[in-house]
Specification:
Mean pLDDT: 85
Helix content: under 10%
Low-confidence stretches: 1-22
Number of helices: 3
Number of strands: 14
CATH topology: YmcC-like fold
Number of domains: 1
Strand content: over 45%
Largest sheet: 14 strands, antiparallel
Shape: globular
Radius of gyration: 17 Å
Distance between the termini: 37 Å
Length: 242
């Protein structure tokens, strides 16, 4: 059985918004977001994202963000998951300057890293050099870009995402507002969904994602649902530290 959490991470985080940034970022070094992961209403994993430090990428100060996802309980017995994603983003723009991942899901293993050279508009990975259309986001930087971006119901946003030597374009629409209850509390949220470039809502299981961001100043990723081949996967915010 393959729950393909890898697809969830990539697709859920494909919320790259090409939209003017509004105000100061609410994030800072030391912040840690913890999540519960549910598979078909069975609690089966945990995930957390942390801004661990200020690092330097080719002379540029960057937030170093670490995301770890692990299976637990019966899910771990059936299909072990131990993934680590890392992103280095500009503290002001939140654009990505480096991304790497270590995927361990069942028998599947993958290690990948890429650095983005905006001056030459290229991505240099451990396997290839690819032309890009700056600015670029990766699977982690998108979260933090969203948290300092102006959102409103009905708005469409352009998407640029780079992973596995592939540049992809998407649209994201703020489809509504809902009150969401998770272990961390109850939040008024914006609901975001991915659309094709032609404006059609994605319906296939690998693209059907709903993301809920809190409407307060922190703009926290509160809940994420994804339809997979084997049913529904849900991430619920459990705790915010520091």
């Amino acid at each position: 059985m393959k729950l393909n959490l890898r697809s969830y991470v990539i697709i859920v985080f494909l919320l790259v918004l090409q939209y003017p940034i509004q105000g100061e970022s609410p994030v800072h070094v030391g912040e840690k977001l913890k999540y519960e992961i549910w598979y078909n209403f069975v609690k089966g994993g945990q995930s957390w994202m942390e801004i661990s430090e200020i690092d330097t990428i080719e002379g540029r100060p960057c937030f170093h963000i670490v995301n770890i996802t692990r299976s637990t309980g019966v899910v771990d017995l059936l299909f072990s998951i131990d993934d680590k994603l890392e992103s280095w983003i500009d503290p002001q723009t939140h654009y990505s300057y480096k991304f790497q991942k270590r995927i361990r899901e069942g028998k599947y293993k993958k290690d990948y890293n890429v650095t983005f050279n905006y001056q030459d508009s290229i991505a240099i990975s451990n396997s290839d050099t690819t032309a890009i259309m700056p600015p670029i986001h990766d699977a982690i930087s998108i979260f933090y870009y969203l948290r300092k971006t102006s959102l409103d119901t009905g708005k469409f946003f352009k998407v640029n995402n780079f992973d596995s030597d592939t540049l992809k374009h998407y649209n994201i629409k703020v489809t509504g507002q809902e009150k969401i209850k998770v272990p961390a509390g109850e939040f008024n949220c914006f609901k975001l969904e991915p659309f094709s470039e032609e404006g059609d809502l994605f319906e296939k299981h690998e693209n059907k994602v709903e993301t809920y961001l809190s409407r307060d100043s922190l703009r926290l990723p509160v809940k994420i649902t994804s339809q997979t081949k084997f049913g529904q996967l849900v991430m619920k915010l459990k705790k915010v530290e520091n």
